[in-house]
Amino acid sequence: MRILIIEDEFNLSDAICSRLKKEKYTVDCSYDGEEGLYNAQSGIYDLIILDVMLPKMNGFEILKQIRSDNILSKVIMLTAKNELENKLEGFSYGADDYLTKPFHMEELIARVNVQLRKNNSKNNNDEIEYADLILNVSTAKLMCKTSNDTMNISGKEFLILEYLMRNKEQIISKDILYDKIWGLENEVESNNLEAYVSFIRKKIKIIDSKVNIKAIRGLGYKLEVNNEET
């Protein structure tokens, strides 16, 4: 899962980033409000750790904007203020949790884990379905309901297919997939994504699923069902 930290205190941001990476999360950092908003609006983050007091744009403004853009990332707000009014303001704009500075790092990690578990609990018991295809995100197993065949899928292949299945009604651009899977500052070869998509297609075919990943010229990829309507 991918987390965005929007925090202008470099030492604190780096400490949070290092700790989250030890928990096997993928983490990006922004150090001012404008950059943070730009990155948050990509929609690629499962959770955002958002400071209130930021240069260029404060955390409340960022939160209001991303919620108006229908960005559903979980948001934990950080603030040096402990007034009830500030917390209520954050919750009214769509914050999921609130932590007052200074805080213990383990408490932040616990709150992050709780929010991301809530995300997972809404995803049909960790199973994502599209047509005859089922992806179990806990076991990383891919199954075809028609043939009952299964296939292990892991690494970048798993992450790409998971994102496509969670957004099954949409055309997903290559740029979004690069950002989601490799990070905002990736330097990935342009043909890497195509190679991974090809590997996924082969695995789907092996288990006799009717699902295919269709390349939409100039736009990106979308799931479709061969010879039948979704």
Outline the secondary-structure elements.
Elements: E1 2-6, H1 10-22, E2 26-30, H2 33-40, E3 47-51, H3 59-68, E4 74-79, H4 84-93, E5 97-100, H5 105-121, E6 127-130, E7 133-136, E8 141-144, E9 150-152, H6 155-166, H7 174-182, H8 192-206, E10 211-216, E11 220-225
Parallel strand pairs: 1-2, 1-3, 3-4, 4-5
Antiparallel strand pairs: 6-7, 7-8, 8-9, 10-11
Describe this structure in words.
This protein has 230 residues and is an alpha/beta fold. Helix content is 41%, strand content 23%. The protein contains 8 helices and 11 strands. It has helices spanning 10-22, 33-40, 59-68, 84-93, 105-121, 155-166, 174-182, 192-206, and strands at residues 2-6, 26-30, 47-51, 74-79, 97-100, 127-130, 133-136, 141-144, 150-152, 211-216, 220-225. The strands form 3 sheets. The chain has a 5-stranded parallel beta sheet, sandwiched between helices. Helix 2 packs parallel to helix 3 (59-68) and helix 6 crosses helix 8. The longest helix is centred in the middle third of the chain and has 17 residues, at 105-121. The radius of gyration is 19 Å and the shape is elongated. The chain starts with a strand and ends in a 5-residue tail after the last strand.
